[in-house]
Amino acid sequence: AQSVTQLDSQVPVFEEAPVELRCNYSSSVSVYLFWYVQYPNQGLQLLLKYLSGSTLVKGINGFEAEFNKSQTSFHLRKPSVHISDTAEYFCAVSSLKGYQKVTFGTGTKLQVIP
Amino acid sequence: EAGVTQFPSHSVIEKGQTVTLRCDPISGHDNLYWYRRVMGKEIKFLLHFVKESKQDESGMPNNRFLAERTGGTYSTLKVQPAELEDSGVYFCASSQGKFNSPLHFGNGTRLTVT
Question: In 10 A of CB A30, how many CB atoms?
Answer without folding.
Answer: 11
